[in-house]
Design goal:
The complex is a heterodimer of chains A (549) and B (304).
Chain A: H1 2-25, H2 31-66, H3 69-77, H4 80-98, H5 107-114, H6 116-124, H7 134-163, H8 173-179, E1 182-185, H9 190-199, E2 203-209, E3 212-219, H10 223-247, E4 249-256, E5 260-266, E6 271-288, H11 289-296, E7 308-319, E8 322-330, E9 335-337, E10 340-362, H12 370-373, E11 374-381, E12 386-388, E13 391-399, H13 405-409, E14 416-423, E15 426-433, H14 436-445, E16 454-473, H15 477-496, E17 500-507, E18 510-517, H16 521-541
Antiparallel strand pairs in A: 1-18, 2-3, 3-17, 4-16, 5-6, 6-7, 7-8, 9-10, 10-11, 10-16, 12-13, 13-14, 14-15, 17-18
Helix pairs in contact in A: 1-2, 2-3, 4-7, 5-6, 7-10, 10-15
Chain B: E1 2-4, H1 20-28, H2 35-55, H3 62-92, H4 103-125, H5 131-148, H6 164-194, H7 203-235, H8 244-264, H9 271-294
Helix pairs in contact in B: 1-3, 2-3, 2-5, 3-4, 4-5, 4-6, 6-7, 6-9, 7-8, 8-9
Chain lengths: 549, 304
């Protein structure tokens, strides 16, 4: 079984390796390559068929032994070899899904990248989304069933041998045959034996029968339950993950500063959902280290004062047009709204204006006396309407760099915008450009601005950011954490404590000792024998030892 | 049977002496010497220590054994001094973070943890020959960090600035270190199996050391995966997203989980399990190096 499995795994790895080399590393796939691919495929097919045959024979044999389908099925599902098989197989599949083939892209991506045939087959075989494929999930379910069956099969026996009265076995002649005890010809008293065993951390139980004293020592028996705690914890995690997969939702919401959105995109499913609320970004801010220090009230000099320490958004949650909650979400500090959590994940430039300050001049006075012509300054914000004198102003269109759009995104600002003005029932589109000359030129050239009494100049310009949120609702999460605590706690119990037993019989000046350890047998054997020798040495050198049997 | 209870027990405090070198390095870390100096000295000490440990294969001299342990302890103290100093320097630069957040820091921290775990095992089982394997690995990690990684102190990216960084990374590296030691034990086992004349402890003991280091480290590794998930849940809103690092840590987990079952329940022992550990360590290496260097996901921080 094991040899066949090893062969199967090795031939599988070989086959996948050869395919990977062909798919990703070779420019041209010649005759030799296809020969190698065919060879490895043949080897893998042979290994698979012979292994299936082997397993089939093995199962047939097992079934013949039991005669009943139910007990056969139960024993099959409770077989530990099945668990190991599944675990290694899951590991191999995970390797496939986490290296070469990028996961969760739309089908066009694969068709484009690998060509129509291979791309289609990758898609068909779910290699493009291994972790949500039917076979991966089936294996997980099988592993869960296996866990449950294993626990049902083993726990009762462990319980009886560890926690019931049946565990008090006396080291009599019958037991000696199993345990092959060590025999010490020394003169220890009963009290000394107890002291010795308790010194090693054992709980000691004693029974006297005629001239014999029987000892039974045990420690760490709860270690035996650890593995069941771990397995139940894993099942709890799986249930939590299942609940999340069925009823949970997780995706991205992109909101430009000053506006609101309820569109949740889930990239993996290529779907857009509508949230039951809107998120409005009132203000987005990049927090530098310098700013963070000043917020904390610390005076510190740092060469990294402009480095990004965090970023954050002031958000409002809007339901039916009313603000129902507001607050801040920053990196590593999500905002909770009901069962939803809103995480600050990314940010970026939208490519238009965020905050603009404009100086307003009187058109008639400007050429004679610019000082007197100055009327005032007005601040415009994306998505808002500002009031100034008898005008209502808003940003209509804008660009970060009028010469080269792309450079604007890279931070090189040469902004231009069109300000929409409503005045006395008339609408005007006023162009404003980063350079005053261009601004004057543009505003004086336009015919529809003939009767517009003002000239606008750009004083200050800040680009608009968008804030990228991860929004999630995961009702299974508490179960996941509960299961996690169980898994880790159970492992500590199972691995950091060891169940050990000692049986001893004192008869005259002969002490017979047998011992057993659930784990680390070799280490325990060494240390126990060393301790026994010390005991022997102690009791022989100390002649005054009282002799009571 | 009835339970009986008597009074007992004394404890010894001699082991406290082992903390002395580390206290010294905490004090040394207070001086204004650049951290890279300490890291470089540590690498040199590891190199020297490797040579001495390897020479132990040929000379079984008590003095040389003592020197070997001393040189490794000095190397570890220097490494710790570097870590202390570097932390203080990040603080002085106004961007405080623990000394395990980029590739250079991660590798040197890894070598430190492997060293400490090895010293504990050496004290407990008295097998210096494991050092002939473990110490060169420590030196290799340290030298790799010196040669390939950027030593500059830079601010952390915003998402990494979290208390989870301490817990998650410390557990992860304890995991890496434990698997490294287990790998050393498995290789020694295979060597002893092939060449029985080598001055190594018995096969049973080597087998058990390997098993024990993995048993001890497995819950820590599990905790690390879970802490990582908890952190991801706080930072990105999802505890699991099949990011390459997550997946590979799961692969490592599945692999060693299978190993533990085979060993404890099926009674596999010896050569078979030793080979399993060797293959398992390959997945550990992929999990650390290949994923950080070639498949950047959320852990791409370590590429610089």
């Amino acid at each position: 079984m094991v040899k066949g499995y090893a062969f199967l795994v090795i031939s599988f790895v070989l086959f996948v390796g050869v395919s990977i080399v062909g798919l990703f590393h070779l420019e041209e796939r010649g005759m030799f390559y296809f020969a190698l691919l065919g060879g490895s495929m043949a080897l893998f097919s042979f290994a698979l068929i012979s292994y299936v045959y082997e397993v089939f024979n093995f199962l047939k044999e097992e079934y013949r032994k039991r005669k009943s389908l139910w007990s056969f099925l139960f024993d099959f599902l409770a077989d530990l070899r099945l668990a190991i098989f599944i675990m290694l197989l899951l590991g191999l599949l995970s390797m496939l899904g986490s290296t070469y083939v990028q996961q969760n892209q739309p089908i066009e991506f694969y068709l484009d990248r690998f060509g129509a045939d291979i791309g289609y087959w990758l898609w068909k075989l779910w290699i493009t989304d291994v972790f949500h494929s039917w076979y991966y999930i089936a294996l997980l379910v099988l592993l869960a069933v296996n866990l449950i069956a294993c626990s049902f099969k083993r726990l009762p026996r462990v319980w009886v041998q560890t926690f019931t009265k049946e565990r008090f076995q006396k080291l009599d002649e019958h037991m000696e045959r199993h345990l092959k005890p060590l025999s010490l010809h020394v003169n220890p008293s009963e009290e000394k034996v107890i002291r010795f065993l308790r010194g090693m951390g054992f709980r000691v139980f004693v029974d006297k029968e005629g001239g014999r004293t029987y000892f039974y020592g045990e420690k760490g028996r709860f270690a035996r339950l650890g593995v069941y705690v771990v397995h139940i914890g894993l099942l709890v995690i799986m249930v939590g993950a299942l609940i999340d997969a069925l009823w949970g939702i997780r995706g991205t919401v992109i909101v430009p500063e000053g506006s609101r959105s309820d569109r949740l995109t889930v990239p993996a499913k290529e779907k857009v959902y509508k949230l039951p609320f809107q998120i409005e970004v009132e203000d987005f801010k990049i927090v530098s280290y310098e700013e963070e220090f000043s917020r904390k009230g610390i005076k510190r000099d740092t060469p990294f004062k402009d480095a990004i320490a965090s970023f954050e958004s002031h958000i409002k949650i809007i339901q039916d047009g009313r603000v129902v909650a507001q607050g801040m979400t920053a990196v590593n500090a999500p905002f909770d709204f009901g069962t939803y959590r809103i995480f600050q994940a990314t940010y970026g430039l939208t490519g238009s204006a965020g905050r603009v300050k404009i100086a307003v001049f009187d058109k008639k006075l400007a050429p004679k006396d610019p000082q007197k012509a100055f009327v005032g300054e007005v601040e415009l914000r994306a998505g808002r309407v500002s009031e100034f004198k008898n005008m209502l102003l808003s940003i209509d269109r804008s660009t970060l760099n009028i010469e080269d759009e792309q450079k604007g995104f890279e931070g090189e600002l040469k902004p231009a915008l069109v300000v929409k003005v409503l005045m006395d029932g008339k609408a005007y589109d006023v162009p404003v450009v980063y350079s005053p000359e261009l601004t004057i030129f543009a505003q004086s050239q336009l015919a529809e601005l003939k009767d517009f009494p003002y000239v606008f100049f750009l004083v200050d310009f800040e680009p608009q950011f968008f804030s990228g949120f991860q929004v999630s609702r995961q009702p299974g999460t508490p179960l996941i954490w509960l299961g996690s605590i169980m898994v880790v706690g159970g492992m500590l119990l199972a691995f950091y404590t060891v169940h050990r037993k000692v049986w001893a019989r004192l008869e005259g000046n002969t002490l017979k000792v047998a011992f057993w350890s659930h784990k680390f047998k070799e280490e325990f054997r060494r240390s126990f024998i060393r301790a026994l020798e010390e005991l022997k040495h102690e009791s022989t050198s100390d002649g005054k030892e009282p002799h009571t049997a | 049977m009835r339970e009986v209870i008597v009074e007992e027990r004394r404890r010894s405090y001699g082991y406290m002496l082992w903390f002395l070198p580390f206290i010294v390095s905490l004090v040394l870390g207070l001086f204004k010497i650049d951290n890279t100096f300490w890291y470089k000295s540590a690498t040199l000490a590891y190199a020297l220590s490797s040579v001495i440990y390897i020479s132990l294969v040929f000379f079984r001299d008590k003095t040389i054994q003592w020197i070997a342990t001393a040189s490794l302890t000095i190397g570890l103290s220097l490494n710790l001094t570097g870590m202390v100093r570097r932390t203080m320097q990040t603080y002085e630069l106004g961007v405080p973070h623990p000394p395990w957040s980029n590739l250079f820091e991660a590798l040197t921290f890894w070598s430190f943890v492997v060293g400490v775990i090895y010293l504990i095992i050496e004290r407990k089982y008295h097998i210096k020959l494991l050092g002939a394997l473990a110490v060169p690995v420590i030196f290799g990690l340290s030298a790799f960090a010196q040669l390939y990684a950027s030593k500059e102190i830079v601010p952390l990216m915003p998402a990494l600035r979290s208390y989870w960084l301490y817990l998650h990374v410390v557990t992860a590296f304890t995991g890496y270190a434990g698997f490294t030691v287990g790998f050393g034990g498995a290789v020694l086992y295979l060597l002893k199996e092939r060449f029985p004349k080598l001055p190594l402890p018995s096969l049973e003991l080597l087998d058990e050391i390997t098993y024990k280091s993995i048993v001890i480290v497995f819950p820590v590794w599990t905790a690390s995966i879970i802490l990582g998930a908890a952190w991801a849940n706080e930072a990105w809103g999802g505890y699991w997203s099949w990011d390459p690092k997550e997946t590979w840590s799961l692969i490592v987990w599945l692999f060693f989980g299978a190993y533990l079952h085979a060993r404890q329940m099926l009674g596999w022992k010896g050569k078979r399990t030793a080979w399993l550990v060797v293959f398992g360590f390959i997945t550990v290496l992929i999990c650390f190096f290949a994923i950080n260097l070639f498949f950047p996901g959320m852990h791409s921080y370590a590429t610089d």
